[in-house]
Amino acid sequence: MRNSRNERQLIIISLLALLLTLLCAASNGDAKFNSASQSESFTAGIDEHPGEKIPLDITFLDESGKAVTLAELITGPTIILPVYYRCPNVCSVLQTRMATALQKIEQTPVKDFRVISISFDEQETPEMAARSRHTYLTAIRKPFPEEGWRFLTGDAAAIRRFTESVGFRFQRRGADFSHQVVSIIVNKEGVIIRYLYGVTVLPKDLALAITEARSGVAGKSIRKMMDFCFTYDPIGKTYVFNLLKVGATTVILCAGGFLAYLLFTGAKRTTSSGEKP
Amino acid sequence: MIPVTPAPSSFWNDTGKTGISAWIFSTDHKRIGLLYLFSTFGFFIVGVLLGLLLRIELMAPGRTIMEPQTYNALFTVHGVTMIFLFILPSFPGAFGNLVMPIQIGARDVAFPRLNLLSWWLYMGGALIVLASLFTGGGPPDTGWTFYVPFSARTGTNVSLAVFGVFIVGFSAILTGLNFVTTIHRLRAPGMTWGRLPLFVWSLYATAWVQILATPILAITLVLVMAERLLGTGLFDPGMGGDPIMYQHLFWIYSHPAVYIMILPAMGVISDIIPVFSRKPVFGYKMIAFSSLAIAAAGSLVWGHHMFTSGMSDTAVMVFSFLTFIVAIPSAIKVFNWIATLYKGSISLEAPMLFALSFILLFSIGGLSGLILGAAATDVHVHDTQFVVGHFHYVMFGGTGFAFFAAMHYWLPKFYGRLYRERPAIIAWALMFTGFNILYFTMQVLGMKGMPRRYYDYLPEFANLNLLATVGSWILATGLVILLVNLFHGLLKGEPAGTNPWGGASLEWSTPTPPPTENFAEEPVVTHGPYDYSRTGVP
Fold it and tell me: Is A25 part of the contact surface with chain B (CB cutoff 8 Å)?
C-alpha cells in the first residue's frame, strides 16, 4: 500500500536523522580523547610535516636481516607505524588494533596499500621483528600476504633520519621509551599524506587515508565521493562525517527524484479516484 | 462542529458515522481540514491571549502585571505557538485540505491516511510543546528562534519544546509530499496546469518549500537537543563549534518558512479578488509563476537575518541583493491584483474587505521589509520593535487577514450557511483600525530605538506604547465580533446555496455542503477558474 510505504519511509528518515546525530556526537567525543592524550607528552611528540617527502634511500634490515631501502617497500600508499617491538603497552595495542582494522577494510594489501612497522629502538634485532610479524599476521584473521606488512629494524643513524623526516620525537627512558602513538600514511613517492593519532585505528579512517594517498591513481570517483562526505578535522585529528553537506545533498536529490518520478513515470491518472486506482 | 440541519447527503452525515472517532480517524480531506482548522485556530486564540498579556505588560514602563522571567517566557511561547502551531500549518492544513482537492476535481488527496497521520503528528507535536510549558524547568525563554548559546544553556524546558516542533515539522513534510502528488496526479480531466486555480498554484509552491526546507529545521533542532543533552559542542567555540552555524541553519529553514506562511495567503487573495471584481484575474500566468519564483528566490535570502551577526561584507551584500530580488515576484502579484480590480465591478463584502486590506497591509510589511533587507538601514533598526512591527504586518496583516478572508469566503461552502454581513464588516473595520494603531506604532517605536524583547523601556517611549496597547484591545474586540458572527452564522444562518459569491472554480459547482466524494460524478473541466462568462454566473 502506498500509505504504509510512506509511513515506513518516515520511520527510516527519522532513524537516519538520529543516527547522523549520534555519529556526529561520537566523532566529537573522539576528538576530545585525542587532544587529552596529546597534552600528556612533554618532550615526546609529533611535529607534523604533511606534504613533505621522506627520504626513500634510508636502509633498514628486514625480518631476515637483509638490507632493504624504503624505496623498495613503498610502492603505493603505505602506512608506517613507528614502534618498538618490546614495547610493553601502546605499540602492541596499536599494532593489534591495526591488525583488526586491516581485517575489515576493503582494499587489497600489496596491490592497494602496504603496512610497515619500523622500530625506533636501534638495539632491536631482525629476530624480534620476525616474531612480531608472526604475532600480528596471525592476529589478522584472514589470509594476509607477508609483503603486505613488513617489520623493520635499523641502526641509530637510519632511525634518526627517518624519525626526523616525519617529525617523530621520542625519548629513551631506561629500557622503554616515551613516545607518541601515531600511524603515518605516505603515498608512493613517500610524500606524507596524513597522521592518524591514537591507538584506536578505525577501518574508516584507515580506508579514507589510503584512498587519499592514492590521489591521481585509479579509483578517482570513489575518492571524490569520500572527499565529499568526509572532511579531515585538523583539531580533532580525525576524519569527520560532513553531516550538513551530505544531509543537504540527500534531501535535494530525494526531492529532485520525487519530482522526476511524478513528471516522468506513469501516465497521469485519468480518473481522480483518491487512493484506489 | 455539527451544523443544525445539514443537507441530506453532505460529508457531515452521508457516511453514517458520528462521534469523535468519526473525526479523529477520518481520512476524508474535508474532515481533516476542519480538524486542522479548529486545532490551529485554537492555538491562534492562545497566541492572541498571550500577545494581549504582553501588550498589557508593555502598557507602562516598569512592572505592570508580570515579572521579567514571565515576560521572557510569554513572548517565547507567543512566538512558538503562533509560528509553529498556527501560521505554518494552518493554511495548507486547514484550507489546503478543505478546498484544494475539490478545486482540482479530485475525490480526496493522493494519500488520505498519510493526511490523517500528518494531523496526528501535528497534534502530537503541539501537545509536546504544550507539555514543555508545565514541566521541567518551566516554559522556554529563548524567543521562538532558539538561538544558541542561550538555548543550549538556559535551564528552562527548551529540549522538550524543540522536540515538539521537530515532530510538527514531519507533519509539514508529509502534507507537502501529499499535496505535490495530489496536484500532479489527481487533477480531473481537462484540469490542465493552466486551469489550476491560483490557490492551488500557491499551495504547490508552498508544498515544495515544505519538502525541501523543513528537514533542515528538523536537523537543526536535533542538533540543539544534542548540544543540550549530549554536550556535543557543535555550536560552542570552546569545543571547536560555531554559534553562527546555528543561525545559518535556523534561517535556511525559517526564511523559506515565512513563504510557507505567506504563499497560500497570496493564493487565497488571487482567488477572492477576481470573484468580487467580477473580472478574470489579470496576468494569471505571471501570478502562478511568481509563486514559484518567490519559493525559489526566498530560499536563498536567509542571510539577511544575520547582517549584524558577524558575516563577511561580501556575504552581507550578496544576501542583501538577493533579498531585493524577492521583491520582484511579490510586486508582480500586487500589481496584478490591482490590475484585476481596475474597471472591475467591485463588491465590498467581507471576504473582499479582508482581501483588500491584505494588499495594503502586506505592502506596508513588504516595503518595511526592504528597509530591513538593505544592509545599511538594517543596522539601525536591527532587533528593534521595527522588526516586530514589520513581521506582524506581513504575517498577521498578510497571512492572518487572508485567513479571515478565507474563513468568510469558503467556510459557508462547508457549513452550508451564511454569516451576517453587517457585523462582519464592523468586525473588519475594528480589526483593520486596531491593527494599524498597534503595529504601525511599533514600527515608529523601533525607528526611535526601542529594542524588541525588552521587558522595560525608557519613559520617552511610554505614550506610544500605551497607544499600541489600546490598538491591541480594538483589534481583539474586532476579532471577538468576527468569531461570534461567523460561527453563529455558520451554525444558524441563512442557507448559503451552491455558489453564494458567483465563483467559477470547481468548488462552487458541487452541492453545498459537498458530499464525501466531493462530486456526484467526476467533473470534466472545460474552462479556466476565472472564466465567469462560461459558468453561467451573472
Answer: yes
Helices (H) and strands (E) in chain B, counts: 18, 2
Q: What is the pLDDT of residue B275?
A: 95
Mean pLDDT score of chain B: 92
Taking each helix axis from N to C end, the angle separating A126-139 and A90-104, rounded to the nearest 10 degrees, works out to 40
Alpha-carbon distance of A248 to B172, in angstroms, equals: 18
- Are the Cβ atoms of A274 and B517 closer than 8 angstroms? yes
C-alpha cell at position A71? 624505496
Complex ipTM, two decimals?
0.78
Q: Which of B309, B313, B305, B417 is nearest to B372 (CA)?
A: B305
The rounded distance, in Å, linking the Cα atoms of B109 and A3 is 12
What's at B54, amino acid-wise?
A: L
The answer to whether residues B288 and B196 touch, using CB atoms and an 8 Å cutoff, is: yes
Which bin fits B493, alpha (ψ -120 to 50), beta or left (φ > 0)?
beta
Nearest 5°: phi and psi at B233?
Answer: 75, 20
Nearest to B160 by CA among B228, B216, B213: B228
Around Cβ A152, how many Cβ atoms within 10 Å? 24
| Shortest Cα distance, chain A CAs vs residue B191, angstroms | 10
Alpha carbons B518 and A183: distance in angstroms, whole number: 70
Substitution target in A4, A18, A272 with the highest count of B β-carbons within 10 Å is: A272
Interface contact A274-B222, CB threshold 8 A? no
Q: Is the pLDDT of residue A201 over 90?
A: no
Cα distance between residue B167 and residue B351, in whole Å: 34
Q: Sort A265 into a burial class: Cβ within 10 Å, 0-12 / 13-18 / 19+.
A: exposed
pTM: 0.75
**Set of chain B residues whose Cβ sits within 8 Å of the Cβ of A243:** 219
